[in-house]
Design a protein that fits this description.
Layout lengths: L7 E4 L9 H16 L3 E4 L13 H12 L5 E2 L20 H9 L3 E4 L3 H10 L21 H9 L5 E4 L6 E6 L3 E6 L7 E3 L7 H11 L4 E5 L6 H10 L8 E5 L2 E2 L11 H5 L8 E2 L6 E2 L9 H9 L14 H7 L10 E2 L2 H14 L2 H15 L5 H11 L24 H5 L10 H9 L6 H14 L4 H13 L7 H8 L1 H12 L3
Parallel strand pairs: 1-2, 2-3, 9-10, 11-14
Antiparallel strand pairs: 4-5, 5-8, 6-7, 12-13
């Protein structure tokens, strides 16, 4: 790609709640593009809507990016960038100069309309917009004399500053994913740029910040596509059009059935996380699950998200972050929405768990095992991982294998009934002698010892295996018996066998 300037991209969420998994995907695509072109990835907090801010949301965003491993090199919580602040609320007073410049050049105007004025507009016509067809009927600087405007300003009459959208003009811009887009200004309205409390709206702050921070590409969700023509006009009217960033609007992340955008409420309703980390709502105290707490690996989550709306081609699906960076391009991003597939997310996680070394997996599982089961040596946990990791879909499923750490808590009557007949021919002492006679204690030799023991004692091999499985596991499923015995050792195996035998 032939770029005219250094790549600088930003992820600019509003801290109005937890970071949705779709937001993580947007951050990921920004990260991949920046890294591929040796550019900067910035976290900017867009908090101009102070009424909707949620306590803890900003920190949650920072923690989420850290957990998935796509850390910005500039911005809130990350690095020392060249700007005093990356929070828009802390630069509140700096935006007014740009709104005033637009007024001076005839591209914006003061509007003194009250809520009642605006309500009357909507009452007269439910579809009415504040635009070129209605603005001259309202209470603004376009209908008032300069003296009246000055008087209202002197009296500190509440006002907003609106952009003066031209009538019936074609606005054309290029989207890196969707190509040439043209919108007629008849579809647009005179958006508020500066609110009555002096706080800029999203549109003004967003454009000003992207210009000031020298953003080269704006990579954001499709929901912002209708705002793009407005932003193009702002760049033009502020005299910045030559430095306007390139736009790339990402496809929506859809519900599994494709019926609408995947929302923050869909996760708990459909039974899978839609947040990277667990979130506790500070107002309702409602807890929403997160991928981390559900036992997902961050690299699996990233790989899964990368393929929701982008595909490098071919059949390969498992990509390291380095491979994703190398392969990523706008050309391979789809135009249509991507259906979220919870089962595919599980598949990715399963594949990543299987690929982990036993030692690395043990490090990840040790805190959970310590909390839920007890304290065990890391080498033992690693050995357990080697036995069960091919079966784990999530890290939390290790809790299905507590019998690998402690004796089964209960032998059910149902399972005991299935193995009662073995008691007539089974000698615990002889079984112990057979195991202790093994010279090389490995699964193959253990299996041979069981075969020889069964033959010598007129016990069917299947009957012996069934008894041993219930004894060691507590139920009739689990890893191979020789592998289990090799893991927990002769003495613990015989202890469990004795406990079960005595309950027959």
């Amino acid at each position: 790609m032939n770029l005219n300037r250094s790549v600088r991209v930003r992820f600019a969420p509003s801290p109005t709640g937890p970071l949705h998994i779709g937001g993580v995907r947007t951050a990921l695509y920004n990260y991949l593009f920046a890294k591929k072109h040796h550019g900067d990835f910035i976290l900017r907090i867009e908090d101009t809507d102070q009424n909707r801010l949620v306590q803890g949301a900003e920190q949650y965003i920072i923690d989420s990016l850290r957990w998935v491993g796509i850390e910005p090199n500039e911005g809130v919580g990350f690095g020392d960038g060249p700007f005093a602040s990356y929070r828009q609320s802390e630069r509140k007073d700096s935006y007014r100069q740009y709104a005033e410049k637009l007024i001076q050049n005839g591209f914006a105007y003061y509007a003194f309309d009250t809520e009642e004025d605006l309500e009357n507009l909507r009452t007269a016509n439910a579809n009415a917009k504040y635009d070129s067809t209605t603005r001259l009927k309202l209470n603004n600087a376009l209908t008032l004399s300069p003296e009246e405007v000055d008087m209202k300003l002197a009296k500190q009459t509440p006002y907003v500053i609106r952009l003066k959208i031209p009538a019936n003009e074609e606005i054309t811009f290029y989207d890196e994913i969707r190509g040439k887009i043209t919108v007629n200004t008849l579809e647009m309205d005179d958006k508020v740029l500066l609110k009555s409390d002096g706080m800029p709206t999203y549109h003004l702050a967003n454009v000003c910040d992207d210009y000031i921070m020298k953003i080269s590409h704006v990579i954001r969700g499709e929901e912002w596509l209708p705002s793009a023509p407005l932003h193009v006009l702002l760049y033009r009217y502020l005299g910045w059009e030559e430095l306007m960033p390139k736009f790339a609007h990402l496809p929506l992340l859809l519900k599994p059935d494709g019926n609408g955008k995947l929302s923050k409420r869909d996760g708990d309703r459909l039974g899978f996380p839609v947040f990277p980390l667990q979130w506790s709502d500070p107002n309702t105290h409602e807890i929403s699950s997160g991928y981390k707490q559900n036992g997902y690996l961050p690299e699996a989550v990233l790989n899964m998200l990368a393929f929701l709306g982008w595909n490098p081609g071919g059949t390969k699906e498992i990509y390291s972050i380095e491979e994703l960076i190398e392969a990523f391009s706008f050309e391979r991003i789809s135009h249509g929405g991507a259906k979220f597939d919870a089962e595919k997310a599980k598949w990715f996680n399963h594949e990543y768990i299987k690929s982990k070394s036993n030692e690395d997996l043990a490090l990840l599982l040790q805190p959970l095992i310590l909390e839920k089961i007890g304290s065990f040596e890391m080498n033992y946990i690693a050995a357990v991982c080697g036995l069960v990791k091919d079966r784990l879909v999530t890290l939390n499923e290790i809790m299905s294998y507590t019998y690998l750490f402690n004796n089964p808590e209960l032998y059910t009557e149902v399972n005991l009934t299935k193995i009662k007949t073995i008691k007539e021919n089974l000698s615990l002492e002889a079984l112990g002698e057979a195991l202790h006679a093994i010279l090389e204690f490995n699964p193959l030799e253990i299996e041979n010892a069981f075969k020889n023991f069964a033959s010598a004692n007129s016990i069917k091999m299947g009957e012996l295996m069934k008894f041993l499985r219930v004894s060691l596991v507590g139920e009739l499923s689990g890893p191979a018996i020789p592998d289990l015995v090799a893991l927990i050792g002769i003495e613990k195996s015989l202890e469990r066998v004795g406990n079960c035998y005595n309950q027959l």
